[in-house]
Write a structure and sequence with these properties.
It contains 4 helices and 7 strands. By secondary structure, it is of the alpha+beta class. Strand 1 (53-57) and strand 2 (62-65) form a beta hairpin. The termini are far apart.
């Protein structure tokens, strides 16, 4: 009887064991960028986390990006049906923000990697405060940046 109980518990735990990696791989939260990671757009090392971004694909692959400008160039050329999530770092806090919820400043005195001059912020209030201090030309949403192609 004890032997049968042990076998039953083993069989119950096996499906959970095999499903665990699938659950983790399917999680679409932001992924920490490891030191030395190369930008998927330009090949430069992703160093300054205030400008970092990433594209997470449905198959679990992650493309690390060194700047919002490179992110928009990269994203523009990708098959959107394969993308699960896109994240940018908030310039002030260095915390991940969903790219389509961020606000982007451009044309100010802070250029960042690749000199695009595009900076991401988690909310409009943070972006407006920074905009005044650094003479940014404007503020746009994710879709507005794509439509106006200020990264080209």
């Amino acid at each position: 009887m004890l032997r049968l109980k042990g076998l039953f518990l083993l069989l119950l735990s096996c499906p959970m064991f095999f499903l665990l990696p699938l659950t983790q791989a399917g999680a679409q939260g932001p992924v920490d960028i490891k030191k030395g990671a190369a930008c998927a757009e330009c090949g430069m090392e992703v160093e300054d986390m205030r400008f970092a971004a990433e594209v997470i694909y449905k198959n679990g692959r992650v493309a690390f990006i060194c700047s919002p400008g490179d992110l928009f160039n990269y994203y523009d050329s990708e098959d959107k049906s394969r993308i699960a999530a896109v994240y940018v770092k908030d310039f002030s806090t260095k915390r991940w923000v969903e790219a389509d919820k961020a606000y982007y400043l451009y044309g100010g005195d802070v250029k960042g990697p690749m000199d695009y001059g595009i900076i991401a912020f988690k909310d409009m209030a943070s972006a407006k405060a920074f905009m005044k201090q650094h003479k940014a030309k404007g503020m746009l949403t994710f879709q507005e940046v794509l439509n106006k192609k200020i990264y080209k």
